[in-house]
Amino acid sequence: MTGSEPRSTDGGETSYGNDNNPEDSSSSAQIAADDQAEPPEIKPGFWAGLTNLFTSFRRHRRNKAGSLRENLEDELSRETHGDDTAFTADERELLANILQLRGSRVEDVMIPRADIQAVEDTVAIADLMEYFRESGHSRMPVYHENLDDPRGMVHIKDLMAYIAEQAGAPKRNGRRKNGERLENGSNGKDTAAEVMNLATVDLSRPLCETGLVRPLHFVPPSMSSSDLMKQMQVTRVQMALVIDEYGGTDGLVSLEDIVETVVGDIEDEHDEAEEAMITSLRDGVWAVDPRIDLDDLEEEIKTGWDLEELAEDVDTLGGLLFTLLGRVPVRGELISDRHLPGYEFEVMDADPRRIKRLKVYKRRHDQRAAAVRTRSKRAEAAE
């Protein structure tokens, strides 16, 4: 073929030297006839089937992430031993907590209102320093008259900077390096020690006049814990007050509280060892913190209570007793209820707002029968 010969523009192959072959001629004629014929009719169900195929494919792609999550949850729940173990026990716990974080709400991790340590905006600087020393916290909420009128929070770093400034500490550009001393000319004395005078600090000045109150977050109890964590990371404000539907303060959440739901308790040098939620005193007797979760209590002492309806409204033992009694019990009160068979509760410590400490007794059938017989004899003697 030369450069002047025309090239085939259709999609078929071009044959050379076979024009006299009768079989090829008949095949070409048949192909031409097929091209001129009407295309075969496509059944109506074809497009529906094709559409369903693509829909199923898209649904599979959408559910792929969910399937991966389910597979991971199944793997974490599966008990394996030896070399077959894909994750260590610590890794399993950490991954399980991360997966559960998506379903966690602020109300699940918040500190209840009764346990909030806060200061009033009229507190004196000297008293504020004492509150920080007693609590061991670095941040504290600030309110006006009561917790339902919050004003913000105060940070201990801001307080220390305020005291240093009022005492006349020299200002520096940048930060002092590790071990670096501030020299004052040739005498070698520390400039801050020479210039600062703590006697000039007015420790009676109220907090509201110092400008130390910082803003904090106000969030609903139903907010996702992971969403609040992201919000705290963006705003760099690590404290939030939980506000109920009526505008009152329901609880307090910090970034540390959310992180602890994943990695476990985080304790620093100033954290004191917390008293155990439940302690066995002797056989059948326990000292119990009323804040203990009902599930944890069941796991520890195997109560066997049927609390399906009651457990929908309360989560803790203290809340359960308050709901059953309809009031806050007083110190020394002995509580027994038909909903909690086999056990009695002695209030060891309480205030007008809440129960602080409980003692739980497991009643034995022989003791119960003996008590019944004793009451019967006393009644007969009285007659």
Core attributes:
383 residues; alpha+beta; CBS-domain; Uridine Diphospho-n-acetylenolpyruvylglucosamine Reductase, domain 3; five-stranded antiparallel β-sheet; four-stranded mixed β-sheet; 13 helices; 12 strands; 38% helix; 16% strand; globular; disordered N terminus; flavin adenine dinucleotide binding; Ion_transp-like_CBS; CBS domain-containing protein; FAD-bd_PCMH_sub2; CBS domain
Total number of strands = 12
The strand line-up of the biggest sheet is 8-9-12-11-10
Q: Please indicate the percent range of residues in DSSP E strands (runs of 2 or more).
A: 15-25%
What is the terminal-to-terminal distance? 135 Å
Structural class: alpha+beta
CATH homologous superfamily grouping of the domain at 107-169 and 196-263: CBS-domain
Task: Write up what this structure looks like.
The protein has helices spanning 22-36, 44-62, 64-77, 89-101, 106-109, 125-135, 156-166, 191-195, 225-235, 255-263, 294-301, 317-325, 365-382; strands at 111-112, 119-120, 139-144, 146-155, 217-219, 239-243, 249-254, 278-282, 285-288, 334-335, 343-350, 355-362. The protein is of the alpha+beta class. Among the domains are: 107-169 and 196-263, CBS-domain (Roll); 278-362, Uridine Diphospho-n-acetylenolpyruvylglucosamine Reductase, domain 3 (2-Layer Sandwich), CATH 3.30.465. The strands form three sheets. It has a five-stranded antiparallel β-sheet, with no helix packed on it. Strands 1-7-6-5 form a four-stranded mixed β-sheet. Strand 11 and strand 12 (355-362) form a beta hairpin. Helix 3 crosses helix 4 (89-101). The chain is globular.
